[in-house]
Amino acid sequence: EAGVAQSPRYKIIEKRQSVAFWCNPISGHATLYWYQQILGQGPKLLIQFQNNGVVDDSQLPKDRFSAERLKGVDSTLKIQPAKLEDSAVYLCASRTETGEGNEQFFGPGTRLTVL
Amino acid sequence: AQSVTQLGSHVSVSEGALVLLRCNYSSSVPPYLFWYVQYPNQGLQLLLKYTSAATLVKGINGFEAEFKKSETSFHLTKPSAHMSDAAEYFCAVRSTTSNTGKLIFGQGTTLQVKP
Fold first, then answer.
1. pLDDT at B72
2. pLDDT tens-digit map of B14-56
3. E-assigned strands of A1-115?
4. How near does any CA of chain A get to the CA of B50, in Å?
5. pLDDT computed for residue A102 by the predictor
6. Closest CB from B34, B42, B101 relative to A31
7. Closest chain A residue to the Cα of B6, Cα to Cα
8. Which of A43, A109, B89, B101 could be A35's S-S partner, Cβ–Cβ 3.0 to 4.6 Å?
9. Are strands B73-78 and B64-68 parallel, antiparallel or unpaired?
10. Which residue of B36, B103, B109 is the best one to mutate when testing the A interface, meaning the one whose CB has the most A CBs within 10 A?
11. Is B43's CB within 8 Å of A40's CB?
């Protein structure tokens, strides 16, 4: 079974530029998450989708971050314009709806450096 | 509200020694608890999870953790450290009553294994 795919793996941009990340979850997983992991910290949830609907975006900085999952499969996360403090690893995860305590499966992440 | 505290941002052990990584949680409802491992430049991989069945949970790579409700703890142990265990370890909590599956992570513990 293929895992969660993310691209690009690394991205370096100047502040005030725009950037987009892509995630392809595990086939059949209805729930998709985007996390931000700042160096030395644990991942923090940015947004959660169930199919193509947003379940939780309470911690998404909506003035600069946006995300979509139009067909309920792939998802993109965009930052426009980027700030220095956005430097982090952006992790995508997906989860099936069945099973007790069903865990999230994580992709390799995209490491963003904002200069 | 839920939270996770990992005691010790860095733990160093000798190869063959006992590994003990501490995790305490706060939750107003019975929790699901998880330990994830993150190797450099990779995503998070599930080590083990507690889902209200047995309080002693065995995971991959010889790791195990014990859920102690009275101490609100879920410490991760391994009897004998191996060089390949060097990584970042994250404890996470999730509400059993929430349908979002949202994970709250601790800040992580870096495990160093000395030869």
1. 93
2. 999 999 999 999 987 778 999 999 998 888 999 999 987 788 9
3. 5-7, 10-13, 19-24, 31-37, 44-50, 53-56, 65-68, 75-79, 88-95, 105-106, 110-114
4. 8
5. 74
6. B101
7. A42
8. A43
9. antiparallel
10. B103
11. no
